[in-house]
Design a protein that fits this description.
By secondary structure, the protein is of the alpha/beta class. The protein has helices at 2-17, 41-54, 67-71, 76-84, 104-113, 115-121, 141-153, 171-180, 183-212, 226-241, 249-252, 272-279, 291-296; strands spanning 20-29, 62-64, 89-91, 129-130, 157-158, 218-223, 244-246. The protein contains 13 helices and seven strands. The protein is globular. The structure holds zinc ion. Residues 27-28, 92, 96, 133 line the site of zinc ion. Keywords: Hydrolase, Metal-binding, Signal. InterPro entries: Glyco_hydro/deAcase_b/a-brl (IPR011330), NODB_dom (IPR002509), Polysacc_deacetylase_ArnD (IPR050248).
Length: 299
């Protein structure tokens, strides 16, 4: 019997080591998207945190826009809850500006203005991770290099993205459909959310294979929205079923792929692998987000 146990354990370990790995990140703390009636920002955060704990997830960064706390002070409870659960926070600028709409200098001030809130909650811990709003990294090379230079000079690392199915698109329709009590529509949202997440596993794995000839350690972009909170247990189950295990952002960014800087000015931004493909003049794999269908639902 002992031999069988050893053989079996060996097999299980080998299987786990050969799968894809992914870090999960949440943007826009304390508030993202519309809320269904009677749901609060704190409930959304607590639901996500409960799932992360139940699923024994490694640390998950929440990227903050402190303007939300300034405009709605009671929402600071979201940041408190995130930290009380042992999850780290990172910088997503003060008010989520588009880098394509402001100068590099104004954008850098936005990053700096967000820092006191990070220092308050992440005292003594590593909060020097930066996530670009909208994944816009600069429409000109000059602007891109200026901001990246500022970030490096201030000790920041860039929280890259290499898995993104547009999770945020479902939050507003979910709030509308909930307000109408349209359960059939919510079932359709549920199904299309998981189907789209699944499609983009294939899209980003293909892109990764085209640029790096392998699976990179992926980094998933999520948002702190009500539907994201509701769907998180099933989303994690989907990724596990597709062979993913979960790692921290720090662990993911040890992948040498993230040392690659596409070093191009691109309007509309994109995930790291998308920009690498733009640099190499490769065509991004065919994909479809149901944004137009979602926009029409429960109007
Ligand atoms: Zn954002």
């Amino acid at each position: 019997m002992r031999c069988w146990a050893v053989v079996l354990l060996g097999f299980i370990c080998l299987g786990a080591a050969s799968g894809q790995q992914m870090a999960i990140t949440f943007d826009d703390l304390p508030a993202h998207g519309s809320l269904p009636p009677h749901e609060t920002r704190l409930q959304v955060a607590e639901s996500i945190l409960k799932t992360l704990e139940a699923e024994k997830m490694p640390p998950v960064y929440g990227f903050i826009n402190a303007v939300g706390v300034s405009s709605t002070p009671k929402e600071e409870v979201v940041l408190k809850a995130w930290r009380a659960a042992g999850q780290p926070l990172g910088n997503h600028t003060w008010s989520h500006p588009s880098l394509e709409a402001v100068s590099a200098g104004a954008f850098e001030q936005e990053i700096a203005k967000n820092e006191p809130m990070l220092k308050k909650y992440m005292d003594g811990q590593d909060w020097h991770w930066f996530r670009y709003p909208f994944l816009y990294e600069g429409e000109t090379l000059e602007k891109r290099r200026a901001v990246r230079g500022w970030l490096a000079g201030h000790g920041y690392r860039i929280a890259e993205v290499n898995m993104d199915f547009g999770d945020y698109l479902w939050n507003d329709p979910y709030a509308r459909c909930s307000a109408k009590g349209d359960k059939a529509a919510i079932t359709r949202l549920h199904d299309s959310y998981l189907a789209t997440a699944d499609e983009y596993v294939g899209v980003f794995r293909k892109a990764s294979a085209m640029v790096y000839g392998r699976d990179v350690k992926y980094i998933l972009l999520m948002h702190i929205g009500a539907f994201d909170a509701r769907m998180l247990p099933e989303l994690l189950a989907l990724y596990r079923a597709r062979g993913f295990s979960f790692i921290s952002l720090e662990e993911a960014e040890k992948d040498p792929a993230y040392a690659d800087d596409p070093d191009i000015g691109v309007r509309g931004g994109g995930a790291q692998v998308e920009l690498m493909m733009a640099k190499k003049k490769l065509r991004f794999p065919a994909n479809h987000k149901p944004d137009k269908e979602l926009e029409k639902m429960c109007r």
